[in-house]
Design goal:
Layout lengths: L4 E5 L2 E3 L2 E3 L2 E6 H7 L3 H9 L6 E7 L3 E4 L5 E2 L2 E8 L10 E7 L4 H9 L4 H6 L4 E6 L10 E3 L2 E4 L4 E4 L5 E3 L2 H8 L3 E6 L1 H7 L38 E5 L1 H12 L13 H10 L10 H9 L4 H4 L8 H6 L1 H4 L4 E7 H4 L1 E4 L1
Parallel strand pairs: 4-5, 6-10
Antiparallel strand pairs: 1-4, 1-18, 2-3, 5-8, 6-7, 8-9, 9-10, 11-12, 12-13, 13-14, 15-16, 15-17
């Protein structure tokens, strides 16, 4: 029987953050090489650990997905699981992600209805789109649960259900861990707490499905309190230069923040320096209230900044893109243990 490789971060104090539940990341190609299913892969990993674990399987070669603010990335989680005491709950502990095949009738319908999916057509043609869990028995949170382990918001937020400690693990940060890139560890802070609410309207949104909030609005609707919702939670994110590349790729094909993609501080900051338009008139008063609470006023959103090339923005991304309190940067290969199941 072939051994299954996976990357692992243990529960507990970890550099400058606390990881509430152990994390296991698996490459889908390694699952295929072992000749097993994604469920079987997760069960193999679960059996090696007595404590709670969040398990994510990534397709890095044939899939795409979108961040909550509508930026498309070249890779996607294909399955997610939660384990505890070596087991995965049969009813609530595992989920495959919903696949929209390239060229399917459903794909054509979504592309016609969701403007941000033009990124799929122009930047990633031929790839399959993977979004929120295909089927869940839980009514909310797009989560899997086993014992103490919660793998929430389509595998981007982890919670220990006894200590109630959480960790944010955005998609691009997970991609960098899978690709042995550079990651930032720190506290989420108020700016990202606000930015998380600036969602794009998606039928199969990984955090907010069924187009509940129009692009340009906020999913939080919390005014000055939006900055406090996630500020205290630790985060493992990508180096900002990587996030900048994905945002620029979207802006360069004409995606407009506030109209086609979300108006998060990260997206708007890059757009201002690139000289790309921002649909300030499409951003709702509720969203402006939250942006202004962390210093991003209407005048700032609708204003301009020093014009830079894409290369200059990427090189200076840590200064241009706001967010993360007290970040420490690490090469993923230096902080992830490689294990086999």
């Amino acid at each position: 029987m072939s051994q299954l490789k996976y990357r692992f971060i243990p529960e507990g104090k970890f550099h400058n953050i606390v990881v509430p539940v152990s994390i296991a990341l698996i490459d889908y190609e390694d699952v295929l090489a072992c000749g097993i299913t994604c469920r079987e892969a997760c069960e193999r990993v679960a059996a090696q650990h007595e404590g709670p674990v969040a398990i994510n399987i990534w397709d890095l070669k044939t899939a795409v997905t979108t961040t909550s603010d509508g930026i498309m990335i070249d890779g996607s989680i294909v399955a997610m699981a939660s384990s505890d005491y070596g087991k995965i709950n049969n009813e609530f502990g595992y989920a495959d992600m919903l696949e929209i095949p390239w060229g399917s009738d459903e794909a054509k319908k979504l592309i016609s209805e969701e403007p941000h999916l033009r990124q799929w057509v122009e930047n990633y043609p031929g790839r399959r789109l993977l979004m929120h869990p295909k089927k869940l028995n839980l009514p909310v949170h797009q989560a899997t649960i086993t014992g103490r382990a919660g793998n929430n918001n389509s595998a981007t937020e982890i919670m220990h259900y006894i200590t109630m400690l959480e960790l944010l693990m955005p998609l691009v940060g997970q991609l960098e861990m899978m690709r042995d890139g550079t990651v930032a560890l720190g506290k989420t802070g108020g700016i990202i707490s606000v930015g998380i609410g600036m969602v794009v309207a998606e039928e199969y949104g990984r955090i907010v499905p069924h187009r509940q909030f129009p692009t340009g609005d906020t999913a939080h609707g919390s005014g000055q309190y939006a900055q406090t919702l996630k500020a205290h939670i630790p985060i493992i994110a990508a180096d900002k230069c990587v996030l900048a590349k994905y945002i620029i790729r979207a802006l360069e094909i004409g995606m407009v923040p506030g109209r086609d993609i979300g108006s998060s501080p990260a997206v708007v900051s890059v757009a201002r320096h690139l000289g790309a338009p921002v649909a300030g008139d499409r951003i709702t008063d509720r969203a402006y209230d939250e942006l202004e609470s962390v210093g991003f006023t209407r005048d700032w959103v609708n204003g301009s900044a020093e014009k830079m090339t894409a290369e200059e923005i990427i090189a200076n991304a840590r200064d241009i893109i706001p967010g993360i309190d007290g970040p420490e940067y690490h090469h993923a290969a230096d902080i992830l243990a490689v294990k086999y199941a």
